[in-house]
UniProtKB/TrEMBL annotation:
Keywords: Glycosyltransferase, Transferase. SUPFAM superfamilies: UDP-Glycosyltransferase/glycogen phosphorylase. GO terms for molecular function: UDP-glucosyltransferase activity. This is Glycosyltransferase. CDD domains: GT1_Gtf-like. Belongs to the UDP-glycosyltransferase family. Residues 177-198 are annotated as: Disordered.
Amino acid sequence: MTTIGEVFVVTSSGSGHLFPCIELCKKLSLRNYKATLVHPSNTSAALDSALDDQRHLIGTIEITAPIRGPPTSNTSPQQMGVELEAHLSGRSNGLNLAHPMCAIIDFQMGWTKHIFWKHKIPVISLFTFGACAASMEWGAWTSNANEYKLNPGQSQTIPGLPEETYIAYRDLTRHHNRPARTSTGGGDGPPKPGDQPPWVPLIEGSIALMFNTCDGLEHPFINYLENQIGIPVWGVGPLLPDKYWASIKSNTLIHDLQSRNPNHLTNQSEDRVKQWLDSKAQGSVLYVAFGSELSPTKEELKQLACALEEIAYPFIWVTQNRLNSSENEEKSEGFFGLDDKIGERGLIIQGWAPQLLILSHKSIGGFLSHCGWNSTLEAIGFGVPILAWPIRGDQIYNAKLVVNYLKIGYLALPSGSPEMVKMDLLKGIEKVISDEEIHKRAGILRAKFEQDFPATLEGALDKFKDFVKEARV
């Protein structure tokens, strides 16, 4: 069958970028596009298993690239993306290949747009986080939020955005630049409210924007960005594996190793995790995970351990410690003594955890989360209420979406006081597990996810197809 045309998809490093880009490639290939994934060399291991049976449908180009973000002064620009430049130059110099329709670029890889422009290939920027976070960053910047004169307890709405997604005094004083948990970098951290979002210069020159979200979840935020930036904005997600959607529709467990073989170290097998979950009552388990890059402070983790010891509910706590590290403080201290006290009531996972399996299990009653976007989408799809503990960046705005706008969660630390961490957590855990109304709302949103997908995605890709076709004429 003749393809419509070739589309390049450029991903950054990290599972939160790579996996959505792979899913986008799959969706494009199923619509008869030739999808070519351009990826940093350090993602090759994860790529092979994630492409699974569609590897023959998706082309790949491995490039030299910084681990995160644009090239720095320590990186020779001539070394960046040389493989991509060579590929595109080869096409122009005699290879009998049709001119690509466009390049869809993860905004963190925005520096590659100049390579595509050199070969007259239009660029669409892809956000792997949500439209609410981008809207609030844009709105805070354009409304000069850093000049707001707020007192403790006060807040300010952003013109054009839902009133529930306001800028609070706490947002202006919050310490955003938390240290990264891994050695993969992360720059100087996200901007404070009112500063220019770092993605603004990276998307300049784009003919459209794509977000890993959908209209049913973030319609007003998608519309806001389209009106503000003046180019088409499409929600092409949620970009999650086919097995995820099959699990939601059939109300069955999903096994991570069948959809995303992580090749990461862990102290608990997927079978062991399932066996433990099977032994717990429906809706009784608290799942605790903060992603792979950021973490609460050591003192906050100590207070979390105290709270988990005191609650009556069973729990799973995922700690992203490298098992081969000799400086693993939590391991040497027995996770603040917690693992010696909890017995079978708790399961502590070091390293990788089968998150899709956990969230899809009927015993899960709440998710204490940093509100990373992929984790947030996964929990929403499975109808799991969220106890939001955002640490920095888009997580803070994702928490506002969950708690204030969708009303399917609570803030983990509403007092904002270091002395109240344990008490805040005890109250929050009780509410997120036992509040029937919040579980009802989470269930309604899950059903909406099930009903809307894939129709909303197909509608967005139809708009993409028509727009790109018209842009080429």
